[in-house]
Design brief:
By secondary structure, the chain is an alpha+beta fold. It has one domain: Alpha-Beta Plaits (2-Layer Sandwich). It has three helices and four strands. The protein has a four-stranded antiparallel β-sheet with strand order 2-3-1-4. Helix 1 packs antiparallel against helix 2. The mean pLDDT is 96.
């Protein structure tokens, strides 16, 4: 078992995603953030079916810093209710996990 998590997030635009990603890496809340632009989302919001083009972000982080990561994303997101969900990383390539350990704050 590891303390590592993958954090899935959405942003309103690639530019917003870049701002969020850079802040997370600069503050050592994530070791790396992948940005996938032009994702088409269909969702229910305030009783209506909506569609939007968004940027997806996938950050590699630690469960122990997730509360700080979540607060940082909320402060930078233009969304009222940003998507920020974490999935545990139960294992991985040992050299990669060692790199993660050195790149992310412990708390």
């Amino acid at each position: 078992m590891t303390d590592f998590v993958s954090v899935y997030m959405t942003a309103a635009s690639p530019d917003e995603a870049e701002i969020i990603a850079r802040a997370l890496v600069e503050e050592r809340l994530a070791a790396c953030v992948n940005i996938i632009p032009n994702a088409r989302s269909v969702y229910r919001w305030q009783g209506q079916i909506e569609t939007a083009t968004e940027a997806l972000l996938i950050a590699k982080s630690r469960a122990s810093v997730f509360p700080r990561l979540e607060e940082k994303v909320k402060s930078l997101s233009s969304y009222t209710c940003p998507c920020i969900v974490a999935w545990p990383i139960s294992g991985g390539h040992p050299p990669y996990l060692e790199w993660l350990a050195g790149a992310i704050a412990k708390k």
